[in-house]
Amino acid sequence: MTEMTTHDIDASKTTPAEGPVDAAPTAAAGPKSVCSTTTAPATSLQLIDGDQNFTEDVNKYMDVEWGLVDRGFDYNVVAVFGSQSTGKSTLLNKLFGTRFATMDEVARQQTTKGIWMSKGIDMNVLVMDVEGTDGRERGENQDFERKSALFSLATAEVMIVNLWEHMVGLYNGANMGLLKTVFEVNLQLFQKKGKEKTLLFFVIRDHIGNTPLENLARTLTTDLERIWRELTKPEGLEDCNITDFFDYMFAALPHKILMPEKFDEEALKLRSRFSDKDNQDYVFKPRYHKRIPADGFSHYASSIWDKIVTNRDLDLPTQQELLAQFRCDEILNAAYAEFIKGVKPFQRPIESGKVADELGPEMKKYLDEALATFDKNASRYHQQVYQRKREEMTAKCHATLHILFLGQLKNLHKRATQRFAQRLQEQLGTGTYDFLTVVTEAREAVFTEFLKGAQAILMEGTDWTFEDAREQLEEDLSEIAAQRRTEEVNKMIGTYEKSVRNEVEELVGLHLNEAKPDLWKQLLDAYKAVEAQAEAKLVERAQRFGSGEAEQNDCVIKLRRRSWECLNKRIRDELVDNMVMVKLRNRLEDKFRYDEQGLPRVWKPEDDMDSYFQKAKDEASAALWMTNTAFKLIPLFAHIDWSKSELDVAEHFENDKEFEYAETLTIYSASKQQDLNMRFRREAEALFLEAKRSIVATEAKVPYWMIVLVCILGWNEFLAILTSPMYLIMFSTIGFVGYIVWVLNLAGPFETVARGIVGQVTQLAKARLAEAVGAGNAAPQEESVPMQPLRASTV
Ligand SMILES: Nc1nc2c(ncn2[C@@H]2O[C@H](COP(=O)(O)OP(=O)(O)OP(=O)(O)O)[C@@H](O)[C@H]2O)c(=O)[nH]1
């Protein structure tokens, strides 16, 4: 028996017992080793130290060292209770392959202080080695016995009660004291019967075999029931039995020192009851499980211990609820953080007004993922708390998604209205189109798109709806369509107004220039025909635009008013002062200048022009003659007279209450007519005077001398004399002298003197010429001689 090796028992107070300890589960232990596996033993953690402080490393060990954190409920907890130095640690190491420190045979001092924890090798079992409860140190640490019992019962499914065979039946022995404590705290913890049971697993050590295990078990059971009966039970639990709270199991192990091989053999068998689920005596029955998920064990154990130390009421259900709340919050926050990470990228585009097409499926995906994560980790906790937290989680995610939902709806709405307007714009500009069809098709297209997008972002389990948005969209589309229709209708009115205007301009010019007494009847009848045609076309097109009766009437009213305004403006333009004067003058001139046959008239002095003009004046101002009919043009122009026309203007504008059509009928006011009459009279008089003057001019004659002078001088020379002062003076002087000569009858003497002067001058000139020629050439001198008589006779 060489398994027990020496080690420093004080080491357990500061460090986990990682050294070579008893029952080290290695191959060296031989073929009968309890744990003949190559897996390294798990490290041990001092859960609660000698000063009753709970370690902060449980989670780390659960995760890194023991790998249990993700196990959920797939783990078990076992604690060992018993007197000090009864081989508890040795037993645990044998059963679970742990490496709890064991006592040095020589020193015989307490080894385990506080509570140690480790993981069973090759099994998901948390093993707690609890400080011994009696012995010499008992007095020092008496309250720890109760605290550790409370803690173990709150966390462990199986409590191994370790005792020597010789202790069985010793009612006043330390074991019975321990069990009493266990029962008392159990009642304190589990107020209700049938909640969770704990298995009390009695391991009877150093079983020699003289007393069969059954007898020992019976003795122990009797003792347990006796203790139970003697307990002071809380109110409501007076009649409860020990079996309402505990199950028993018994096992015996041979003397480890005296029968080491037998001990190992039995220990191996015992181990299978903790590790082999198929073993019929498997101890970790589901009914013993404390239902603390592995990832919540650290927090749960810590808060249980905190309650125990501070001596507050330890209400386990509340603790489990609190744990559930704590853990569910943690799980919720972690899952929600992941969820936010997933949906955040959609936030910015949606805020900036873009439609995220893939938002719907992505929203569902991230919500499902978040809930799946939450369910996976939180569903093991207190069900009510879990359900509550799940709802909280769902509501939280929905609240976040709802912002995206609303943003997306807004953007879908915006996109739909934009596309609708754009589509109308494109298709209405194509020339030939059917407004109603275009609008209906565009509306259907954008609506389908909107509904598809909105449907995609609806989330199950919410009361979200897009009905309001849909209604709003319908309204907005109708408004856009109506706006477009109004624009189109206005454009249409404009088109027909233009066609009316073109025809009206021609009509007005024609009728006013050739004004006849029935001017207005003719003009308005013609206008009515043109306008009625345009009106009919307008109504027909408006119907194709889907305009209602009211809108059609409105269009007609507008067209009538605008056409009338065109007509009116054209009339006024034609009858503006100067224009009308021109018209009147033309008419007058036509009358004066052309005769009845239409030939130009030449006034002769014998024509009785005065009486002709007088007649005109007597006919009152602006009287003109058309063929044989005389009528007054200005009064005719002054007022649009529709009384004889087919166009009943009053009826025409009956529906246009705002239009003061009567004001448009007057072209000239009375004073204006007077003014025009005055102006025309003056013009007519001027015309008459001009005509008269032309007759006088015809009568006047040009003097004969002027005609002679012009003939003599020629026209150019005549003008040169007239325009040059020197010539004019010279010519006047000559004229004057001539006139004196003619008046005084001095022509004879003057002629004689003049002849003499001319003869002398001629002779003198000839002499000079002869001299000049003789000096130069004799021959030519001779030739010139016969010329002299001719010249002299000429003179
Ligand atoms: N007789 C006998 N001695 C044993 C047996 N198992 C262990 N021992 C011895 O008992 C002593 C105490 O062993 P531990 O395993 O340290 O006992 P313990 O109950 O854990 O001690 P504490 O933790 O200090 O309370 C050691 O010297 C062991 O060798 C056994 O089955 N029979």
What does this structure look like?
There is one protein chain. With 795 residues, the chain is of the alpha/beta class. It has 4 domains: 29-312, Rossmann fold (3-Layer(aba) Sandwich), CATH 3.40.50.300; 319-424, no CATH class; 514-696, no CATH class; 707-794, no CATH class. Helix content is 60%, strand content 7%. The strands form 2 sheets. A 7-stranded mixed β-sheet has the order 1-3-4-2-5-6-7, sandwiched between helices. Strands 8-9 form a two-stranded antiparallel ribbon. Strand 3 (115-119) and strand 4 (125-130) form a beta hairpin. The longest helix has 47 residues, at 467-513. It is rod-shaped. The termini are far apart. The structure holds guanosine-5'-triphosphate. Residues 4, 84-90, 102-103, 105, 110-112, 132, 205-206, 255-257 line the site of guanosine-5'-triphosphate (GTP).
Small molecules held by this entry: guanosine-5'-triphosphate
Report the uncertain regions: 1-38, 135-139, 617-630, 778-795
Annotation field: number of helices:
26
What share of the residues lie within helices?
55-70%
Q: What's the Cα radius of gyration? A: 68 Å
CATH architecture group name of the largest domain:
3-Layer(aba) Sandwich
Total beta strands: 9
CATH T-level topology of the largest domain: Rossmann fold
Number of domains: 4
How large a portion of the residues is in β-strands, by DSSP E?
Answer: 5-15%
Q: Mind telling me the CATH superfamily name of the largest domain? A: P-loop containing nucleotide triphosphate hydrolases
Euclidean distance between termini CA atoms: 198 Å
Q: What characterizes the major β-sheet?
A: 7 strands, mixed
- Principal-axis shape equals rod-shaped
Say what oligomer this is: single chain
Structural class: alpha/beta
Give the strand order, joined by hyphens, for the main sheet. Answer: 1-3-4-2-5-6-7
